[in-house]
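Pasting two entries for a bug report.
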Amino acid sequence: MTPVLEAEGLGRRYGRQWALRDCTLALPGGQVIGLVGPNGAGKTTLLSLAVGLLRPTEGEVRVLGRRPRSPGTVAEVGFVAQDKPLYRNLTVAETLRMGAWLNPGWDAPGARDRITRIGLPMDQKVGKLSGGQRSQLALTVALSKRPKLLLLDEPVADLDPIARRDFLRTLMSEVAESGVTVVLSSHLLADVEKTCEFLVLLATSHVQLADDTETLLSQHRMVTGPRADAQSLFSAHTVVQADYAERQATLLVRGRAPINDPMWTVRPVSLEELALAYMSTSLPQEVAA
């Protein structure tokens, strides 16, 4: 199956600063994919390259098997930018009519139904809508293109908890009904953990993780034990993060080999713990016994 988004050595530089570097990915279709990382990690840059708003400095990216700016790709990709760029002086109804005019495959009945369900007044100016209402309208416009791939750049970052919950419910309902593939960029790890089946983690402008979330969680464990014995774990596993107290060490390790030493307590890792650990800039140094 052709990946919905594929990058090979992809990079984008602004002057001397790399916003994204050596990005190689193959994202599967039919899933909700979480794109996480700290501010400045390259999330927005990756999405902007994928929709053709930016051109790569190096490497290439293909979306639905084609270049981002090809006519077929533009028609099949929905995008909600972080600032949700809607025309503030248009009403909700005028925004939908403009969407129909710009998109040949526009789903007018579906757009009206979504607006009715979320309770947006058709005659209300976009500029008078709340943040949550603007987010719902932007999502409606993107979904009404009937895209095969939907890219969302921090769509709930500025929403209160209730508006965020409503937005995610609308999104997941659409995924269930239409099967659209979603790439959801977010720094809200709890939302990613609840909604995403595949995780891409960027840090320091590079891809640190890209895999099925269940696979990633099964590969990592949190272990706690005597600091003096930590050296043995460094030799047998990849230690992603290490925290030390005077006599105790707590380590996030990656590896399939079992840890059978009774001196160590082993537990599963949460997606939030996993993501936060990989957002650090470097792997921990080995500790002296």
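Entry 2 (this is the one that rendered wrong in the viewer):
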Amino acid sequence: MTEPDSYASVRYVVDDVQAAVEFYTTQLGFQLRTNPAPAFADVVRGPLRLLLSGSASSGARATPTDLATPGRNRIHLIVDDLDAEIDRLRRAGQPFKSEVVAGPGGRQILLADPAGNLVELFQPAPH
């Protein structure tokens, strides 16, 4: 097995690589790492490397068609002020897929990228 680099990587299969890059970089603060468009791009935020695979990428072709639709899995992004993030994203026209849910560990809300992959914004409860 090869040595891992400094990122934890997650692959999302997307319909439109450029739309996904724009969403993650302009709305959620990711930085573009590589973009051999239109098949693939990867963006990073902290230690997370998000692999955005279009239908022509090898990653998308390896996915069985019965598993190719988005599910309940999601990336989890910690934010300092959930209400401020919700306001900012609503002003940018981003629709949410849930209401705010509060529990003993904190508060969260779900939104989706342009391909329907879920993103959870989470504000930890104060200690």
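Dev reply: Rendering is fixed now. As a check, the viewer should reflect this: The first strand starts at residue 8 and ends at 13.
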